[in-house]
Design brief:
The chain has one domain. Helix content is 77%, strand content 0%. The chain contains six helices and no strands. The chain is globular.
Length: 110
């Protein structure tokens, strides 16, 4: 096992331990914050010119708890192809598209 992988493993274990020790509301806030950072990184990399904050807010606000947790887990390894699949799946939901329009975003943002 490489040092980088070992460090990632310990960060993951420490993060999980912190989540377990928190109240359910705190766990949700931590997971949403972690997922939001992954979405923001993905949007910055893959959608130049799209306003990152409203895009990210719309994605997180319309994600299921399972999607939030999957994206939050990617904070350790970074944005992956799987992350992007989850993000684009959320972006295609009608409620997310409506959110984009309310935020003043139009055009192709998936």
């Amino acid at each position: 096992m490489t040092a980088a992988l070992s460090a990632r493993t310990w960060v993951s274990v420490a993060g999980l331990a912190a989540l377990v020790a928190c109240s359910p509301q705190s766990q949700d806030q931590l997971a949403r914050g972690a997922a939001k950072s992954v979405v923001a990184r993905a949007a910055t990399e893959r959608l130049p010119g799209v306003p990152v904050e409203p895009y990210t807010d719309c994605i997180i606000d319309n994600a299921s708890s399972t999607q939030i947790l999957a994206l939050a887990a990617d904070t350790v390894v970074g944005v992956t192809a799987s992350s992007w699949e989850i993000i684009t799946g959320i972006a295609r939901k009608p409620a997310t598209l409506e959110c984009f329009l309310r935020a003043g975003m139009s055009g192709t943002i998936v």
